């Protein structure tokens, strides 16, 4: 606190007291005596005697670094007074150093007057208060007319230079304020506002655990620097319970501050973070006007509960809520506190000195004002570019002065060679709409309809009346030779299925679908993406130039350029009509489309200015009554309308008019709707307003009346197109036909069995199989059996019969002199006996048979021995070994080592064995199925649709529950790790040589700053730490690379990369394919990380095909990151791209809820299977791990329920025994 500030305009604590007037007497004395005496006074401070409380306060000030004495501490020769002292307005200076001190104090008074809140400070030093807004700049100019009688504003060089100087001074002032806010206690707690303040301090185990001393030290600085200047104070600490310092708020004095310091030093960790209980006590004090909540951990209650309670308590009461997130390593506590503050209209502050992360409503307010000042400077730079002599010129602004200073055509970004001459292309084919094209290329035209293919072999069922039976009888031949199939008219026909014909038909369908995909890709590029296909020979283009389209005039001009170059050049005649409130035709009537006319039309389009409303009815009347006045005498005539919103007239009025004029002639109206995200009204209120969906519905109605086509597109791509919808419908029909073919062949196979499969094998494969059969070695014949072998076989075959019967083999007795072998059986009978033995040996025998020669009579004897069935041996609960640190790998790879199955903690496998299944057998005498005798001894549970018995002890279940809770904690910590830092958005960087592709198209403009911050975090947190070679590529309409090759992640390279990221500007389309092709050229590249917020500007299937071709030359993994994208089609494309290349798909969705759920699980334990629950993650890593967590929680809850069941069973058994 005692150290001097490093920047001009900041001050120490005692200097602030000077500013506040506490030592104003001493300051006057210092001015009169001179700077030298003042310095001597500073160097010899003295303590005031006999005042114990004031002495402690003075001692604290001295320890804080103060070097200025109080008035009572001045020496005797310094004690004098000045009477009748008038202000000298800074003119009385006795020493040059004193002048510097006075100027510094003056600057300090501007930056931080009386610790004023930032919102109050902005009322005095904002751009409006300083008169530095765009309106103030415009007032300095004079409106003049140029040679073309167009309005311009003329500025003098002195006026613009003075305005620019004042803007630089304002920006410097904002920088000083920001640096002041990031010093001392303001850095950690912000600027505390209010006069009667209640302070709620979090003393949970997380906040006051290992960092208790630092927390107490920072709180003491807060008390000494800010809280000592308020009027009343109230302190309360909260952990699991809430503990106030006083029951009521106290007036500030020395004793109260001393008691506060001692209380802060005595703070101890106290369990959880029950903020709701603390709020209930604090809201009982009605005299407070501000409430400061300081927390370093996540509250036990959700932000919704806390916000609702605070809003209810603040009804009819003015109370400012300020939340402070103190040194939080996780992102969840700051997010919760910020949400609470925003919900109740308060202020928030978050600071993490480890990661140098700051988030504060004060900083946001100043940074916003600073950005406005920088935007004004950029406008002034553009004014300077039009400098002539001693004056500066610029066009009169026509849109909202808060958004653009000049006309949109001057300030909006333009495509390359936007104002250059046209590059006319003459198409070498006749343009057709999709409906006309399908008449020659559709499935029906190509005779590829399934009903056309099956018609020659399809027969209607024959039904005839049989007089003898007196009823109608149907033929049944189809049941054996044909398949029944539903026809397109709903009737059932018997179809003879020929698989080779259907297989060839499916190949033709596949070729047709590929052809349709190429047609869709052709319709999705260049001018067809904006206008569709211009088919007619006589064309009039209607262009909407209303005031609401001013921000998109460049888009409109560019779309006109494309259609003039590519499609209008092949027409007979054409004309262009621009309409806003008034109608502006290019020519009085239609003219031939030769290159000179096209170039003149383009020059006329470049001069268009947006103004007025959207008078579509007058434009249509002008086109129909002038350009198409002879519409009955000509064919192939079309009106193409390009508009950005709903017309001024009602829909039914325009529809009725177009239905009338288009009837009886070949004239059609086609509409292209360009949906814009924002619009500038420029003070003009349109007669009608409609959402984009409502506008699209209205134009569809008009198009239907005029027999035309509707095309709807925006900055991100095509939303709806009649041409593309027709092709997609034909593709769906082809897929449906192919699916029905597959069902027919499948049904035929099920009916005919394996016989059909044999017929379908080609001849060459059959010959090869026969050759294999011929080459297969033959089995050797069995050896000649002996008598003992025959006896075993015969006895085993008859073991289910009469075991006491005499055996023929046993009656044979070998003589002592002649040991003859009885004649063997024929080989055929012996082989049959061997086969019987083979089949019966598969069953586990219940009786063991041993044959032997007896001593008496030398006979053959048999011994039978029964064995009990094998019992299931229960496996012991394994002790799992879990990782101590997080591994840099994907969730799939990580779970291959630590999944539940890999750790052998699968609950059904541990608990249930082969004999656990509950079975019932039929008892003949009772004529019903009954359970086993001892079934009621073991508890029964239903598992996977069957009833099983629990053969496990409660202590084993206790061990299993303990192990599963350890595994779950490891899983949840891994989830927290994945949701923190740059891994939240990009996942874990696995490869050593990577390239990051960043989308900087126009749709990324609102979130480009956030993307830059995330990329900066990624560079320092993962790439620099892991020494990864990397490169950066930004892509919009063009592709820009940071370096030409991969670069080592050194400190210098990382700094340079971060600086390059700050130059991003959002504009244009999304050329993903170009960026990927550029990245594949990098030497040594292993993986690409593609960050985008939408679909590419080309076909998704085309991108996937091209990437497959590139991967054949070089195998590169592509990981995709979906950023703030809610388009399901775009996300599906990114998933396919990652899956096709072996990469991972990431989407930052539900990260805050996931962090909160993980925190609750670790703090509250695993008590419930469904609360808290993780959000539905879509990213591969988070989704895989969340699924394993859900499985583990399910097993844990089942194990606890089984334990309760066993304990209840034991208790019932004990009560029954007693």
Question: Can you describe this structure in just a few lines?
Answer:
By secondary structure, this protein is of the alpha/beta class. Helices cover 44% and strands 15% of the residues. Helix 2 crosses helix 3 (35-43), helix 30 packs across helix 31 (827-840) and helix 36 (1008-1023) packs antiparallel against helix 37.
Largest sheet: 8 strands, mixed
Terminal CA distance reads 76 Å
Could you estimate the helical fraction of the residues in percent?
40-55%
Overall mean confidence score, pLDDT? 75
Strands, count: 37
Q: State the helix count.
A: 42
Structural class: alpha/beta
**Residue windows where pLDDT falls under 50 for at least 5 positions:** 1-87, 89-95, 387-409, 754-780, 799-845, 869-873
- Percentage of β-strand residues: 15-25%
Protein model, in words:
- By secondary structure, this protein is of the alpha/beta class.
- It is 44% helix and 15% strand.
- The strands form 9 sheets. Strands 3, 4, 5, 6, 7, 8, 9 and 10 form an 8-stranded mixed beta sheet that branches. Strands 18, 19, 20, 21, 22, 23, 24 and 25 form an 8-stranded mixed beta sheet that branches. The protein has a 6-stranded mixed beta sheet with strand order 34-33-32-35-36-37.
- Strand 22 (637-643), helix 25 and strand 23 form a beta-alpha-beta unit.
- Helix 30 (787-797) crosses helix 31 (827-840).
- The longest helix is centred in the C-terminal third of the chain and has 38 residues, at 1180-1217.
- The protein is globular and about 100 Å long.
- The two termini are 76 Å apart.
- The model is unreliable at 1-87, 89-95, 387-409, 754-780, 799-845 and 869-873 (pLDDT under 50).
């Amino acid at each position: 606190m005692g150290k001097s500030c490093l920047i001009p305009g900041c001050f120490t604590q005692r200097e602030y007291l000077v500013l506040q007037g506490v030592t104003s007497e001493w300051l006057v004395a210092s001015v009169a005596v001179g700077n030298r005496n003042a310095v001597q006074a500073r160097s010899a401070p003295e303590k005031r005697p006999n005042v114990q409380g004031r002495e402690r306060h003075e001692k604290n000030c001295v320890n804080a670094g103060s070097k200025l004495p109080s008035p009572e501490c001045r020496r005797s020769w310094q004690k004098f007074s000045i009477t009748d002292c008038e202000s000298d307005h800074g003119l009385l200076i006795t020493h040059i150093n004193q002048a510097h001190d006075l100027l510094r104090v003056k600057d300090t008074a501007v930056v931080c007057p009386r610790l004023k809140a930032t919102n109050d400070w902005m009322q005095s030093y904002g751009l409006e208060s300083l008169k530095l807004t765009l309106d103030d700049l415009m007032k300095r100019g004079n409106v003049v007319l140029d040679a073309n009688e167009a309005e311009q504003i003329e500025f003098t060089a002195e006026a613009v230079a003075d305005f620019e100087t004042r803007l630089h001074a304002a920006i410097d002032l904002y920088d000083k304020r920001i640096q002041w806010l990031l010093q001392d206690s303001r850095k950690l707690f912000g600027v505390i506002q209010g006069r009667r303040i209640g302070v709620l301090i979090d003393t949970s185990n997380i906040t006051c655990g290992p960092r208790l001393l630092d927390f107490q030290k920072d709180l003491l600085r807060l008390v000494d620097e800010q809280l000592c200047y308020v009027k009343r104070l109230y302190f309360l600490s909260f952990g699991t319970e809430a503990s106030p310092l006083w029951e009521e708020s106290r007036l500030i004095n020395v004793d109260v501050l001393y008691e506060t310091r001692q209380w802060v030093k005595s703070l101890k960790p106290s369990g959880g973070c029950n903020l709701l209980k603390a709020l209930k006590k604090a809201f009982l004090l009605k005299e407070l006007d501000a409430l400061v909540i300081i927390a370093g951990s996540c509250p036990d209650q959700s932000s919704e509960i806390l916000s609702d309670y605070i809003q209810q308590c603040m009804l009819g009461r003015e109370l400012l809520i300020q939340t402070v997130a103190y040194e939080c390593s996780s992102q969840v506590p700051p997010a919760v506190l910020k949400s609470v503050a925003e919900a109740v209209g308060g202020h928030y502050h978050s600071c993490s000195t480890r990661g140098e992360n700051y988030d504060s409503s004060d900083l946001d307010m100043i940074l916003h004002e600073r950005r406005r000042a920088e935007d004004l400077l950029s406008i002034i730079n553009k004014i300077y570019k039009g400098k002539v002599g001693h004056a500066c010129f610029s066009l009169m602004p026509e849109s909202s002065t808060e958004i653009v200073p000049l006309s949109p055509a001057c300030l909006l970004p333009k495509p390359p060679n936007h104002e250059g001459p046209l590059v006319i292309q003459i198409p070498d084919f006749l343009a057709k709409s999709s409906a006309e094209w399908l008449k020659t290329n559709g499935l029906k035209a190509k005779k590829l309809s399934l009903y056309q293919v099956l018609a020659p072999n399809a027969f209607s069922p024959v039904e005839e009346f049989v007089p003898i039976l007196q009823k109608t009888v149907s033929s049944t031949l189809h049941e054996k030779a044909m398949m029944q199939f539903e026809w397109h008219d709903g009737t059932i026909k018997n179809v003879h299925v020929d698989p080779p014909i259907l297989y060839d038909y499916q190949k033709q369908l596949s070729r047709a679908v590929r052809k349709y995909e190429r047609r869709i890709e052709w319709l999705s590029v260049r001018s067809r993406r904006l206008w569709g296909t211009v088919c007619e020979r006589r064309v009039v283009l209607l262009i909407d130039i209303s005031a609401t389209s001013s921000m998109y005039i460049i888009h409109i001009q560019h779309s006109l350029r494309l259609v003039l170059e590519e499609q209008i050049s092949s027409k007979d005649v054409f004309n262009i009509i621009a309409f806003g409130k008034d109608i502006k035709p290019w020519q009085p009537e239609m003219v031939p489309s030769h290159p000179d006319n096209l170039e003149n039309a383009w020059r006329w389009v470049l001069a268009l200015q947006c103004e007025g409303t959207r008078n579509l009815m007058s434009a249509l009347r002008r086109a129909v009554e002038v350009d198409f006045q002879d519409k009955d005498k000509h064919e192939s005539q079309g009106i193409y309308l390009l508009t950005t919103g709903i017309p001024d007239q009602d829909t039914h009025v325009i529809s009725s008019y177009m239905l009338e004029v288009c009837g009886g002639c070949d004239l059609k109206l086609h509409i292209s709707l360009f949906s814009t995200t924002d619009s500038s009204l420029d003070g003009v209120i349109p007669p009608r307003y409609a959402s984009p969906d409502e506008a699209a519905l209205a134009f569809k109605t008009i198009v239907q009346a005029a027999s035309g086509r509707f095309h709807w597109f925006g900055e991100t791509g095509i939303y709806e197109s009649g041409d593309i919808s027709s092709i997609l419908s034909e593709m769906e029909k082809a897929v449906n036909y192919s699916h029905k073919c597959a069902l027919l062949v499948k049904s035929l196979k099920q009916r005919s069995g394996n016989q059909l499969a044999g017929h379908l094998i080609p001849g060459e494969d059959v010959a090869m199989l026969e050759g294999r059969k011929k080459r297969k070695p033959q089995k050797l014949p069995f050896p000649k059996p002996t008598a003992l072998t025959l006896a075993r076989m015969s006895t085993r075959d008859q073991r289910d019969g009469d075991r006491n019967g005499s055996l023929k083999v046993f009656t044979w007795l070998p003589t002592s002199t002649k040991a003859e072998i009885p004649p063997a059986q024929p080989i055929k009978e012996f082989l049959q006996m061997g086969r019987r033995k083979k089949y019966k040996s598969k069953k586990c025998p219940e009786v063991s048979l041993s044959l032997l020669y007896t001593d008496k009579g030398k006979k053959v004897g048999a011994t039978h021995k029964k064995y009990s069935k094998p019992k299931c041996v229960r496996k012991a609960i394994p002790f799992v070994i879990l990782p101590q640190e997080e591994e840099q790998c994907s969730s799939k790879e990580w779970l291959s080592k630590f999944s539940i199955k890999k750790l052998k903690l699968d609950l059904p496998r541990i608990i249930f064995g082969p004999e656990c299944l509950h079975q019932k057998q039929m008892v003949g005498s009772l004529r019903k199925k009954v359970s086993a005798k001892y079934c009621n001894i073991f508890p029964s549970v239903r598992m996977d649709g069957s009833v099983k018995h629990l053969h496990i002890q409660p202590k084993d279940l206790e061990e299993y529950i303990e192990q599963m809770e350890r595994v779950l904690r490891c899983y949840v910590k891994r989830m927290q790790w994945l949701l923190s830092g740059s891994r939240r958005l990009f996942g874990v960087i696995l490869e050593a040589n990577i390239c990051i592709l960043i989308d900087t198209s126009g749709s990324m403009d609102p979130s480009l700053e956030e993307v830059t911050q995330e990329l900066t975090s990624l560079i320092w947190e993962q790439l620099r730490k892991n020494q990864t070679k990397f490169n950066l590529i930004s892509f919009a309409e063009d592709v820009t690379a940071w370096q030409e090759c991969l670069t080592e992640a050194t400190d210098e390279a990382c700094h340079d990369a971060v600086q390059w990221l700050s130059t991003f500007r959002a504009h244009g389309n999304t050329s993903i394919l170009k960026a990927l092709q550029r990245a594949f050229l990098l030497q040594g590249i292993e993986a690409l990380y593609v960050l985008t917020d939408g679909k590419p500007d080309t076909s998704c299937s085309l991108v996937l095909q091209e990437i497959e071709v590139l991967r054949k030359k070089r195998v590169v993994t592509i990981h995709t990151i979906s950023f703030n994208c809610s388009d399901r089609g775009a996300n599906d494309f990114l998933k396919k791209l990652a899956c096709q290349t072996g990469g991972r798909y990431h989407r930052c969705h539900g990260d805050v809820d996931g962090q909160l759920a993980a925190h609750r699980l670790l703090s509250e334990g695993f008590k419930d299977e469904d609360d808290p629950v993780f959000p539905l993650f879509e990213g591969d890593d988070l989704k895989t791990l969340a699924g394993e967590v859900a499985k583990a929680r399910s097993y844990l809850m089942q194990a606890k329920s089984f334990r309760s069941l066993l304990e209840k069973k034991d208790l019932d058994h004990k009560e029954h025994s007693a």
